[in-house]
């Protein structure tokens, strides 16, 4: 199935169909903030964005800007053809748990070496996940970890029927 027509970005917007494949890594100095269980989990102006065709950006937050005491290693691994082998974290805050809510690359490929010691989070399970003060929407489908904000337009991989895009 071919993707639906590309949404034309308005001024100040980005289309995920203008993102490259293989994906591009870029520094992001805007404010990224995460809360879970009423606790500030992360706050940074030192994130990276991974931009890949048909996907909203995935944000990688440096470990030093994360309240790591709430991260618990989770079982399992996955593999990205661009970034390498990923491992997972769950979040646990005063009895509230989100399983496999975050992932990282302990030994990323050379092209993505900058995200070593950085962690990405799925937005949906979090109480708050903001970029520059705007609450993000999770990339559709639950498998991918992109964050949708008002300046990102699709259509986005993850919607029903997008498996072959």
Keywords:
165 residues; 0% helix
Structure description:
With 165 residues, the protein is an all-beta fold. It has one domain (15-147): Beta Complex (Metal Binding Protein, Guanine Nucleotide Exchange Factor, Chain A). It is 0% helix and 47% strand. It is built from no helices and 15 strands. The protein has strands at 14-15, 24-28, 32-36, 39-44, 47-52, 55-62, 71-80, 84-93, 96-104, 118-121, 128-131, 134-135, 137-138, 147-148, 152-153. The chain has a 7-stranded antiparallel sheet with strand order 2-5-6-10-9-8-7, with no helix packed on it. A 4-stranded antiparallel sheet has the order 4-3-11-12, with no helix packed on it. A hairpin with a 2-residue loop joins strand 5 (47-52) and strand 6 (55-62). 34% of the residues are buried. The model has no long low-confidence stretch (mean pLDDT 96).
């Amino acid at each position: 199935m071919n993707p639906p027509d590309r949404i034309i970005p308005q001024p100040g917007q980005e289309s995920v169909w203008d993102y490259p494949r293989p994906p591009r890594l870029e520094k992001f100095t805007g404010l990224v903030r995460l809360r879970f269980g009423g606790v500030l989990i992360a706050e940074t102006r030192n994130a990276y964005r991974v931009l890949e065709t048909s996907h909203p950006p995935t944000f990688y937050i440096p470990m030093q800007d994360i309240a790591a005491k709430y991260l618990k290693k989770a079982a399992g691994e996955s593999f990205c053809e661009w970034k390498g082998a990923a491992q997972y974290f769950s979040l646990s805050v005063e009895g509230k748990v989100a399983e496999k809510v975050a992932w990282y690359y302990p030994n990323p490929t050379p092209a993505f070496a900058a995200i070593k010691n950085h962690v990405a989070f799925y937005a949906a399970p979090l109480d708050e996940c903001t970029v520059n003060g705007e609450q993000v929407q999770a990339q559709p489908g639950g498998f991918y970890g992109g964050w949708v904000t008002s300046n990102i337009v699709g259509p986005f991989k993850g919607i029903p029927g997008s498996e072959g895009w």
